[in-house]
From TrEMBL:
Start and end residues of each N-acetyltransferase domain: 10-160
Keywords attached to this entry: Acyltransferase, Transferase
Organism listed in the record: Actinoplanes philippinensis
A Pfam cross-reference name: Acetyltransf_1
Name of the protein: Predicted N-acetyltransferase YhbS
Keyword Transferase: yes
InterPro entries: Acyl_CoA_acyltransferase, Bact_Acetyltransf, GNAT_dom
GO molecular function: acyltransferase activity, transferring groups other than amino-acyl groups
Length: 160
């Protein structure tokens, strides 16, 4: 498959409510996510998930993105645009929850999705794009480094 073929089969757009079950399936289809208790399947979408989707969809600083091959959702990520005083008041884009369907990995689709998100950030005038990735995801670290991301900061989180 050539790069042109790959791009012609993958369409990228903002997710709709109808995409949510497929997005949840992608998010749950991951060993690390399962260790965090994320075992939800598409049939178990509950009110809290629908409320979260509605909040994302209504907020112009958040975008839930899907990548499709025909009608099949094969990838997803969430973009959050953050205003700030640093960098001359420039907006930054946070990329989260990046997933490509297990059967479709290794075809360059993840790189295409990330490049699309970077174009989206440029369209909005963002000065920087950032993401975090679990320390156990060494393949993801190599993937993002190959796309030009630098491990310049140490991220920290606390469960609440």
């Amino acid at each position: 498959m050539t790069a042109r073929d790959k791009l012609s089969i993958m369409q990228i757009r903002i997710a709709t409510r109808a995409d949510v079950p497929a997005v949840l399936h992608l998010l749950a289809d991951d060993d690390i996510s399962r260790t965090r208790g994320f075992g939800i399947v598409a049939e178990e979408v509950d009110a809290a998930v629908w409320a979260a989707f509605e909040a994302i969809d209504a907020d112009d600083r958040n975008e839930l993105i899907v990548a499709l091959d025909g009608d099949e959702v094969i990838g997803t990520c969430q973009l959050t645009f953050i205003p700030g005083l640093s960098r001359g008041g420039a907006e930054r884009m946070l990329i989260e929850a990046v997933r490509i369907h297990t059967a479709r990995r290794g075809q360059g689709l993840g790189g295409d999705l990330i490049r699309w998100t970077l174009d989206r950030a440029r369209e909005r005038g963002c000065a920087i794009a950032q993401l975090t990735t679990d320390k156990r995801r060494t393949d993801a670290h190599r993937f993002y480094a190959a796309l030009g991301f630098e491990a310049s900061h140490e991220g920290m989180k606390i469960l609440l």
